[in-house]
Structures are given as C-alpha cells and as structure tokens.
C-alpha cells in the first residue's frame, strides 16, 4: 500500500485548507484511513479517522472545524480544515490501517502552517 499526501501550505488564521491522501496498491486490506499531525516539540496526535463503512472520528481539538471524507472511486481521503488556528500548525501525516495483515501504512508528511 502506498499513500500519497498533498495539499499542505501556508494559510492565515481563520482560513481553510484541504488535504488529500491517495491510496494505491493492495488497498482492499485497508479498513480505515485518516490523519495524524505532529507539531514541533510535540507528540504525534491523531486528528481524524474514517472507516471503510464511512464512520468518522475526530480529535476534540478539531471537531466542528475539520471534516474527513472519502472518495472510494478515487481511493482518496480528504481532510477539509476550516477556521484554522495557529495551533493547527504541524506536519500532517496520512495513514491507512489494515487488519490483514495488521499494519499501519504511512504517507509522507505535508506541512500546514497557520500564520497570524
């Protein structure tokens, strides 16, 4: 499984960005996809997850501002980020979770920088 993330960039506080994560390879084994983020000097934090059946889950810090969605035809997961805050600045990593085999796949990070 390969994951290709894109969409990061520089945005002012209050603005919006959309991240994309395109999956390829043996994607039939993927049961959930989502995003982690890691800010400088902080631990990696789970941001949002979407399962194969469409269930979603969010970190409290982003709930109501971020929306995760998927386009199964394109094997792509999106993270729409609205009302961005300075504290959303981080490298965002796309991930895919497989149960057979049990494994987490990672995409490359994409940097989101929110400026005042």
Structure description:
By secondary structure, the protein is mostly beta strands. Helix content is 0%, strand content 62%. It has no helices and ten strands. It has a six-stranded mixed sheet with strand order 2-10-9-4-5-6, with no helix packed on it. It has a four-stranded antiparallel sheet with strand order 1-3-8-7, with no helix packed on it. Strand 7 and strand 8 form a beta hairpin. The radius of gyration is 13 Å and the shape is globular. The model has no long low-confidence stretch (mean pLDDT 95).
What are the salient characteristics of this protein?
mainly beta, four-stranded antiparallel sheet, 116 residues, 0% helix, six-stranded mixed sheet
**Low-confidence parts lasting 5 or more residues at pLDDT below 50?**
none
Average pLDDT, to the nearest integer? 95
- How many H/I helical runs? 0
**Percent of residues in helical segments?**
under 10%
Radius of gyration: 13 Å
The major β-sheet equals: 6 strands, mixed
Overall form: globular
Order of helices and strands: EEEEEEEEEE
Our estimate of the beta-strand percent is over 45%
Distance between the termini: 37 Å
Describe, in short, the structure shown.
0% of the residues lie in helices and 62% in strands. It has no helices and 10 strands.
List the helices and strands and how they pair.
Elements: E1 2-6, E2 9-12, E3 17-24, E4 30-38, E5 45-51, E6 56-58, E7 66-71, E8 76-81, E9 90-99, E10 102-115
Parallel strand pairs: 2-10
Antiparallel strand pairs: 1-3, 3-8, 4-5, 4-9, 5-6, 7-8, 9-10
């Amino acid at each position: 499984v390969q994951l290709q993330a894109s969409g990061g960039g520089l945005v002012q506080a209050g603005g919006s960005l959309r991240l994309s994560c395109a999956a390829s390879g043996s994607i039939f084994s993927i049961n959930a996809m989502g995003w982690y983020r890691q800010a400088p000097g902080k631990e990696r934090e789970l941001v949002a997850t979407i399962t194969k059946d469409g269930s979603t889950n969010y970190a409290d810090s982003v709930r109501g501002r971020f929306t995760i969605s998927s386009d199964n035809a394109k094997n792509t997961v999106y993270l729409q980020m609205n009302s961005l805050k300075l504290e959303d600045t981080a490298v965002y990593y796309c991930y895919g979770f497989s149960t057979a085999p049990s494994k987490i796949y990672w995409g490359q990070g994409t940097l989101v920088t929110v400026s005042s």
